[in-house]
């Protein structure tokens, strides 16, 4: 049967050809082609693909996969492996497409995307974002969807108009259709596939031109009858073959079909050739496929429903007997499973286990369905554990928690219930420490728990309490965890327990012991090579060093940990290191890099659908906004400050950020909430971005709000800590700064300037110079102005525009005017050092992954730097960047 010419889609084809021309010029993007089944999507994609090849563009094709055939997105792209985890596959696809697009623009064509499972859809959504600057055009076809979850233009294929229908009729029949025939063709409702079937029925004499067919929906029925009539005209063996094949699905193997028919594959030669000749099925690599979904559906629905149900069960067994993975038959299992069906439940469990490494979310859906099918009183513990674990791994923490709560009253064994609570408690940290602590308390109240599980629960509870601000409670449970694990030989459990004890001691001012125990926890973890531990003892040590102001040591540890996480494929750990990296960058005054890192973390959070690190990234961006006065970031900073919580400690951190924002905006001072004071109990806070060095800022805010008693109490707490660490210059410097602010003492503040002179925390150092200048100018104008000038130079060199503007205002009060920059620079001169390095490497043809590896950054951070560079250079694509000539400012040197 010859397909009708592509009629009635000229406008859409012209638009897609326009996009191809833009692609040839280096401009990528994405277009979703939406249309009902048979509306011509596949034909349109084929036409555009052929045009792209004619223009010399590279074309990669794929199809949306059903939920149990995940992430097999592209055919012909070298270097990808669908056996890897979902994030690995995305990275490989990104790298492969970037490499391909370096030489020639790329068209990616994905058909039937309505079948894409959650993992495949997420992968494409991620790739669209990551490759937005590359000469890659995505052409994605799917049936109409209310969802607009892809960042793409939508091209809708409506019904063919009357003129197009008439032209198709002339093409097929060779003559202008009679008015009676036009009435009949109207029943196809402008659907090209249905229209073609009707016309060929007429041409073959199987339908009378005067037969009435209206727009009431008879055309799909007519189409089904036409397909079934073709099937009835086949020989008996061929008819049986295609009917049973329709049960197997859109694609099938000769072996599966032979099993269904209880024959040898050799006997199918003639029946399959007959079905191929009738164009009911097609060859597709090493499988057979139905010509169209509607063809398969028409054949399958022609069978009685009770028979279909039994045949589906037979198809499951035939596929399994042929060695098909359980994941491949999961669709049929879901169609046939009934309540209490132990065979189906077992198959769904097996399918979930097979799919979990590639797509935890799809696996969770199968496990949840298996859980729903299990009868009351059945052993649901394993099913619930699987489903909750898979949801957690997929980042669906809220759904995992809700599923657990739904079955919490089920007859679960106490250890199972406790393990699930422990899993949720660990994954909720640090986003929801209050809920995490509650789960731990509930689990610890259960009877008959093994000591190793109690130890793990106590360790998680200790961390939750520390984050929530209950340092004493955290210490108590850290000691309990250590006692419970004393006889345990599992190094990973011991590592988790020891690092919890280290953090607890550190936050109670026992710094050196905390660092020593962190080293011990690292050695325990390293006893299990390649272990993917939930705890990062070296990460906690890096945060300790960061909180102490030992930024160089923290940075070295972070870089080493980040490289190891990437080499071992431990992506969750990689993002933990990115979070630590962002806070070090912020404290060291590298505002542009801190912003890029935090925005990269937010992009990662959106892709993974998790909020675990989003709050911390928002805190970093809020502090960047404070120093810059960035109007694009400040609204989000205020929103973040207003929603920080729950828990006393988080409330205090929100109050602290709000107070800083109010001061920066000149809002009249109000009495800060006492919860804020608890952040400055005298010891270093490993979690918050505030610490003992910021006590002077707390004093300033309290004095501004006319709270001198609270300000004095804060200084006294810091003095007590200084007495515990008499040899520590950082504590002594912080105490000198804070007391100088309390007393407005220029001598103390000048001494603080000397003590901070070699400090690595450049934002803090600039503030000390400013505070000293303000106090000194009251008694010695010349010395005060010199200190303020130094502070201005420091703020300006860090890009802290808001802080620099404040110091210029202070200088004007003393009759000194310092000119502000005329505005943000554009072009190459406006790029930061990091943006310049990234742009240079990209212009030389490096992929994002190659740039990330060379500069020891995450690909998300590279993407952020590149996006900022594009804005400043007023370009949109890599191609435009590569075309910039050296005399515009692009230099190959460092």
TrEMBL record:
<keyword id="KW-0067">ATP-binding</keyword>
<dbReference type="InterPro" id="IPR016032">
    <property type="entry name" value="Sig_transdc_resp-reg_C-effctor"/>
</dbReference>
<protein>
    <submittedName>
        <fullName>AAA family ATPase</fullName>
    </submittedName>
</protein>
<dbReference type="GO" id="GO:0006355">
    <property type="term" value="P:regulation of DNA-templated transcription"/>
</dbReference>
<dbReference type="Pfam" id="PF13191">
    <property type="entry name" value="AAA_16"/>
</dbReference>
<dbReference type="InterPro" id="IPR027417">
    <property type="entry name" value="P-loop_NTPase"/>
</dbReference>
<dbReference type="InterPro" id="IPR036388">
    <property type="entry name" value="WH-like_DNA-bd_sf"/>
</dbReference>
<dbReference type="InterPro" id="IPR041664">
    <property type="entry name" value="AAA_16"/>
</dbReference>
<dbReference type="GO" id="GO:0003677">
    <property type="term" value="F:DNA binding"/>
</dbReference>
<dbReference type="GO" id="GO:0004016">
    <property type="term" value="F:adenylate cyclase activity"/>
</dbReference>
<dbReference type="Pfam" id="PF00196">
    <property type="entry name" value="GerE"/>
</dbReference>
<feature type="domain" description="HTH luxR-type">
    <location>
        <begin position="824"/>
        <end position="889"/>
    </location>
</feature>
<dbReference type="GO" id="GO:0005524">
    <property type="term" value="F:ATP binding"/>
</dbReference>
<dbReference type="InterPro" id="IPR011990">
    <property type="entry name" value="TPR-like_helical_dom_sf"/>
</dbReference>
<dbReference type="InterPro" id="IPR000792">
    <property type="entry name" value="Tscrpt_reg_LuxR_C"/>
</dbReference>
<keyword id="KW-0547">Nucleotide-binding</keyword>
<dbReference type="GO" id="GO:0005737">
    <property type="term" value="C:cytoplasm"/>
</dbReference>
